[in-house]
Amino acid sequence: MRTPRLFAAGLLATVLALPAFAADYTQAPGSSLAFAGTYQGETFSGTFPGFRSTVSFDPADLAAGRLSVSIPLATATTQNDDYDAEMRGAAFFDASRFAQATYTATGFRDLGNGQYAADGTLELRGLRKPVTLTFTWTPGSRPLLSGRATVRRLDFNVGGGDWADTGTIPNEIAVSTRVYLQPVN
């Protein structure tokens, strides 16, 4: 007769020998999506507190990975009322016409040293352009996807017209995210 310890050890060995499969996750509390740039040489930063993400990730099968992010543009904030009103207005996000931006990626690449890339598509102000998100993945009971991307704002007509001068606001805006995840039930 097998002892409970021997049975548990055998069960654990069987589970560890099974191949890993992609896990589906939704965003958990504590996640952030931020952006930063400069305006007339002064640094500004802001967040999209209303964003939502879903992820499917398996480091052994990166081609099967998926990432989907929805970003309600009216939630964008720099904590500066003047900046926020202009940013949400027609010259920048035009949140009254384009309520949401989305980022989607299917399949990831291994960059080595624990770094991955999601070559996805950002849809912003009705335009769709490729954007690569580089990220790290921290596994566990509450996995963390931590990444960075660069968005060329003028590719999406963000800050066009009088705001198109890249000496006032550079074309490249840094985006960073820390997405805590929980398994989909």
Main sheet strand line-up: 1-4-5-6-8-9-10-11
Q: Count the helices. How many?
A: 2
Q: What is the N-to-C succession of helices and strands?
A: HEEEEEHEEEEEE
Kindly give the count of domains.
1
- Reported CATH architecture: Beta Barrel
Largest sheet features: 8 strands, antiparallel, barrel
In CATH terms, the superfamily is Lipid/polyisoprenoid-binding, YceI-like
Rg calculated over all Cα atoms:
20 Å
Q: Could you describe the 3D structure shown?
A:
There is one protein chain. By secondary structure, the chain is mainly beta. It has an 8-stranded antiparallel beta barrel. Helices cover 12% and strands 47% of the residues. β7 (108-112) and β8 form a beta hairpin. The protein contains 2 helices and 11 strands.
Fill in the keyword field for this structure.
11 strands; mainly beta; 185 residues; disordered N terminus; Lipocalin
